[in-house]
Structures are given as C-alpha cells and as structure tokens.
Amino acid sequence: MMNTRSALFYLVLFSFIGCQSGQTNKTSQATIKKETNPISKNNQFNKYWYSGKAELNSYTLKQARYGEIREGEVVLVFVTEPFSVSKQVKLDNPQKAGTDAVSVMKLNHVRKFNTGIYDYAIITSTFTPINTKKYPFTLKSSTSIQEWCGHTFTQLNLADDTYNFKQFSYFEADGDEEKTINATYLEEALFTKIRIAKGQLPEGEINLIPSTIYSRFNYKKMDVEKAKISKTTSEKTLNYKIKYLSINRTLTIGVEKNFPYKILNWTEDNGTGLLTTAKLKASSTEPYWKQKKVSDQDKRKALKLKYE
After folding, report:
1. How far apart are CA 249 and CA 234, in angstroms?
2. What is the pTM of this model?
3. Model confidence pLDDT, tens digit, residues 146-161
C-alpha cells in the first residue's frame, strides 16, 4: 500500500501518461471509445482514497439459501492500488511499470453465513480503474465460494472487447470451463463504480453481467444480460434499482448521498419470495494489512464483527 505523498505522485503520473498519444495495451482502443462522462477527481477524493488506508465496512447479512433465510455477515474492503493492465495483478514496483501501470479501486467483498451444520465463505475481488474515461470496464474480477461440500473459483479478465472467463469447480454439473464473454459492466463492480463516480450509476437500459454468487447459486451460465437501472433520492440517500429484463433478479442499493458515498444497504430479489439483505453496521479507515498482532483484534470490535 502507498502513503499519501507517493500515491498522489502516481495518480498525477497516471494522468500524464494517459494524455500521451500512441499508447497501446491489452485494453483496445475500441473499448476505450465506449466511455462517456469522464470522472473529474478533486482534492477531497484524493485525500480520502490516497491516504494510505483502506475503508472497512461491516454489514448484517440475511442470506436466502436453500429455501430459508440464514444469518450472516459481510465485509466490504475498499482501497486504491497500483495495478498492471497486462498482467492484471497488483504492481510491486509501479514506478518501473510505465504505461502498464494504472490506479484501481479494489473491492474485496467477503460474505459468510451458515447453512445448518456447515458454513459458507465467499470472497469476490474486483479491480476497477479510477480513470474510467480511459478504462470504462473493470479489468478483473475473481470469486471463490467455499463450503463443506466443495468449492468453486471463477475469474474474468478483460482482454480487448471481451472477458476471458474461467471457472474451476468440484461439482460435476459445473466442471471446469473456459469461454469469452462480451465486455460490459459487471454487477460485482457496481459498488466501486458508485464510489468512483460520485455516487452515480448510468440510468436506463444497459448490458450487465450478473454476479458470480447469483450465477453459481442459481445454476445459471454467466453471460451478458439486459438490465434497467432507475434511481430515486431522499434527504440522505440515493436509491438504485437494477432490474434484469432477461432473468428473474432485482438488485437495490442504498448509497450515502454525500461524499464518500458509502454503500448503506442492498437487497437481492431472485423471485423466490425470499430476499437477501445487507445493512451497514459500522465503518472505519485502517491500514489493515499492517494490523497483524493479537492486540489488533480489538479493532474488530469497532467494526462489530461476529464471525471469525
């Protein structure tokens, strides 16, 4: 992770590099041209997101699974990092990467709940460039679903105008799979898009790739689907409704109306009569990667975390 001074230096460096002509990388010029309404960063954004800390958020979870509601917990970890466009990994030496370096907002979405005697542990990591004008689509998303029966791992990597999709599964019905999916917005990256875009999502009909959790839990092949996004506002919140037109799924997201536009709650409705819901419990900013001592466990209390 970076301190404030070095992070701001790299942000300026990335902005300068992005203005140069003739740059080529794995993301094609055709993909770049799809972007509209570029996001203008300001000192408030930079001070918060390049402070050398991550934003940690805990949520009370009610997860619909196997026809019942399960009690659980979600942690959303938002942090900016230097990222390699070609290798699609965090850069150890971004100053040496040249035009391959891009600043991304990483989201680790950690979800835990029990089903009877056994538990589920799910983590999804998404890597979305801050410069959405140049990189409109998330570069990478990976999901690991672990439970006592077995586990699956799914990853999407952006390459030109497609995502390279790979899935590895313990279960025969899933098996191992590789394919390409047309590049578009990812449901799993909507939270980071909101944080980068001053709380905003594009309204109207869009192409959207549903979340891996939905696809795996409902035995749906992952592909591009049509969805319609609408927004309502109240005194303190922005409320988004994402309704898929081709599958039975509706996602609603409550967002803090003012900076830093935290995710306050969300609901997932898959047409079964049971809703998955998450509601914010606590939030803090910490350099968590440094907090490895037994004494640092007290910080979990501030986040009101229950599940180990």
Report:
1. 24
2. 0.86
3. 999 999 999 999 999 9
